[in-house]
Amino acid sequence: MTQDGNPYDNAIAERVNGILKVEFDLYQTFGNFNEAIIAVDMAIAKYNNIRPHFSCELQTPQQNITLC
């Protein structure tokens, strides 16, 4: 996510990438690009609408849009 490939330069993006890979099984190899797009779209929807976040007082970003 950075020019020189240093993950510490963009810790927030790296954290989100890690969550998507581990919690939503996006570390797998997909059969084609469309399968990957569908899986990523579903993971983002779950991340924003189902998964509670500590930064949102254990609500989803969608539930508490003012804190997130």
UniProtKB/TrEMBL annotation:
GO terms for molecular function: nucleic acid binding. One of its GO terms (biological process) is DNA integration. InterPro entries: Integrase_cat-core, RNaseH-like_sf, RNaseH_sf. This is Integrase core domain-containing protein. Pfam families: rve_3 (PF13683). It comes from Pedobacter nyackensis. Residues 1-68 form the Integrase catalytic domain.
